[in-house]
Amino acid sequence: MTYLLICLTVFLVSGLTLFSGFGLGTVPMPAFALFFPLPVAIAATAVVHLANNLFKLALVGRDADWGVVWRFTLPVALAAIAGAFLGARLLKKVTLKFVQATVVAMMVVVGAGLAAGML
After folding, report:
1. Phi/psi class of residue 36: alpha, beta or left (left: φ > 0; alpha: ψ in -120 to 50)?
2. pLDDT value at residue 119
3. pTM, full prediction
């Protein structure tokens, strides 16, 4: 039953992100984390992201402006690598509780902004 609930949640959110571009990073991770250890939840979320992106590519990729795609690919890839490197270094200097509190605060601010129509 647990697997069915998680699969249904992720499937519905994946469908919503096709149109909104938002939700796949915020909903499945907590859903996975309720039932699995955090490293497993993170890995499962990464697999969902990969599968969702491959599905979107297959669905709408033929209509993409590939010149624009390639101009964004390199900077985004470099920024992701830099962010992972800096994040790993930052986690050695701050506590996990601080990171958790910061993420919660950011989610509250973004949620309030969305609810108020500001974002």
Report:
1. beta
2. 61
3. 0.58
